[in-house]
């Protein structure tokens, strides 16, 4: 079963991101936390659904439900113009994975109610000024790097708050 409405809402959310290098710099501490939390959550999901070989950028949605499908025209809307998307626009494979996850609707919460949404930290990271790239076993945020580590190492980390108040306070510290 595919939740087309949820997938469409996710595409709209991704398209609404404002890429701004100055904002990304001002929020570099919170963006590092969000990248870390994204890795932690996806590691936990990868372990839960048996998708560790493709972690951290694999198809979690396909591991939860191999039948999930998204209209290619919907994901084609996410083809960003690199000239207006900042230094690190959303990687196409990440955008497709996020939209496929959204297309699962409530299924992940029903099957694994103890696990939080794996992509929410990444979406919040985008909303705080920009995206990222991957190089040399690390996530490059433009103003710092975060080592990816192993699935087990990331999955064992304590959760970090990603609410706006906590993130804003973290950025004020820096």
Describe the structure.
- With 174 residues, this protein is mostly helical.
- Helices cover 52% and strands 5% of the residues.
- The chain has ten helices and three strands.
- A hairpin with a 4-residue loop joins strand 2 (138-140) and strand 3 (145-147).
- Helix 3 (28-49) packs antiparallel against helix 8 (120-127).
- The protein is globular and about 45 Å long.
Structural class: mainly alpha
**SSE string, helix = H, strand = E?**
HHHHHHHHEEEHH
Count of DSSP E strands?
3
Q: Which term fits the overall shape?
A: globular
Domain unit count: 1
Strand order of the largest sheet: 1-2-3
| Residue windows where pLDDT falls under 50 for at least 5 positions | none
Bin the helical content.
40-55%
**How does the major sheet shape up?**
3 strands, antiparallel
**What gap, in angstroms, lies between the N and C termini?**
45 Å
Strand content: 5-15%
Rg, alpha carbons: 15 Å
Q: Given the structure, what is the number of helices?
A: 10
Mean pLDDT: 91
């Amino acid at each position: 079963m595919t939740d087309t409405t949820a997938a469409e809402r996710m595409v709209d959310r991704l398209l609404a991101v404002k890429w701004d290098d100055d904002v990304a710099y001002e929020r570099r501490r919170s963006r590092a936390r969000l990248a870390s939390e994204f890795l932690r959550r996806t590691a936990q999901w990868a372990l839960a659904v048996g998708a560790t070989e493709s972690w951290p950028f694999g198809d979690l949605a396909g591991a939860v439900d191999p039948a999930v499908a998204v209209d290619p025209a919907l994901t084609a809307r996410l083809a960003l113009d690199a000239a207006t998307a900042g230094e690190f626009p959303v990687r196409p494979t990440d955008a497709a994975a996020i939209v496929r996850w959204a297309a699962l609707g409530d299924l992940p919460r029903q099957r694994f109610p103890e696990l939080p949404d794996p992509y929410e930290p990444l979406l919040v990271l985008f909303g705080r000024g920009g995206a990222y790239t991957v190089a040399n076993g690390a996530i490059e945020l433009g103003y710092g790097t975060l080592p990816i580590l192993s699935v087990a190492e990331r999955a064992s980390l304590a959760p970090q708050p990603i609410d706006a108040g906590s993130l804003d306070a973290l950025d004020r510290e820096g």
